[in-house]
Specification:
The chain has 5 helices and 2 strands, in the order H-E-H-H-H-H-E.
Amino acid sequence: MLKFSTLYCIVLVFIYIFALSSTIKIKTMLTQNEKNTSFLIHLSAFLSFVFPFGSILGPLIMWSVNKDKSVYLDDNGKEAVNFNLSYTMYLFILGMIAFPFAFGSFFNHMRHIDDFDNLNFHFDFDHLFGFLSIASVISVITILKFALVIIAAIKASRGEVYKYPLTINFVK
């Protein structure tokens, strides 16, 4: 069984590897306004904490408004939109996989109830293993997404285009 500290170290190693391997330097002279705008394009992914699908709509709106201003803003916007679409799709698929495990463990427990007058909802973790394992994968992906958005925003403020890992190019 993995301990939390081991899982934390594994996540930190992946973040470090992804941060070093995926940077493109832009050779043109960038203004501070372009760097700040690209920084905000990446950080707009945190709008998902404010309203549903904010992690997709925030970068999409900021990119569509600023894509014609420079190639740098266009590249950063495409990366942010593609990353947020990809990771939202990954989390949705994992959530759909976890759905049967959650209901299966619930109905498996309900199957053993003989007397509905004395319902005892004492759940043990024997039947929740599949659900908890998928939930832990979802939480690791969420932590990675949070860290990668911050890394990309820092790289964008330095004038670099960050290539997110495991991203499907929806917008080309």
